[in-house]
Design a protein that fits this description.
By secondary structure, the chain is mainly α. It folds into two domains: 37 residues; 105 residues. The protein contains seven helices and two strands. Helix 3 crosses helix 5 and helix 3 crosses helix 6. The longest helix is centred in the N-terminal third of the chain and has 17 residues. The model has no long low-confidence stretch (mean pLDDT 90).
Length: 150
């Protein structure tokens, strides 16, 4: 169930919201609701930020070019282990854990992004995003549990 909430905006904020709404193909209210939701998620998950992408607005890991969907795609190959994902990406454990925590809270959004990527295919995605990196976890990746626990 949703409720209408009245918000007082300055004229320049309304103009900026209108530009974003038009670019997103949404009404002012829909765009404002999306921005509020994203801001709340960013406040709850401090290592997550939202960015405009060819897949639409997506959560990314702050300070990196990694989308949460990419982190989860890698983590799935590593049994959803924060330790092994962090080791593979040569990142701190808390970085991988943040992606897993976000996924636990919002699995539908990440699964939807992964489905879009699968439908597009990597080669077509690379045409849209020339700097994208493809991560392939080799089957020989250190599976002897030497990853440091989070």
């Amino acid at each position: 169930m949703s409720k209408v909430v009245s918000v007082r905006l300055k004229e320049d904020q309304i103009v900026r919201l209108g530009r974003h709404a038009e670019r997103m193909g949404k009404s002012h209210g829909e765009a404002a609701a999306q921005f509020i939701e994203e801001s709340m998620r960013e406040a709850e998950f401090r290592l997550i930020e939202f960015r405009d992408t060819v897949l639409g607005r997506q959560p990314y890991m702050k300070g990196s070019r990694l989308g949460v969907w990419q982190m989860i795609d890698i983590a799935r190959d590593l049994e959803m282990s924060a330790e092994r994902t962090a080791e593979y990406l040569q990142r701190p454990c808390y970085f991988a854990q943040a992606a897993l925590d976000y996924y636990q809270a919002y699995p539908e959004a990440i699964d939807k992004a992964l489905a879009k990527v699968d439908a597009i295919g990597f080669e077509e995605l690379k045409q849209m995003l020339p700097n994208i990196q493809q991560f392939v976890v080799p089957e020989s990746f250190d599976a002897d549990n030497t990853a440091k626990p989070c």
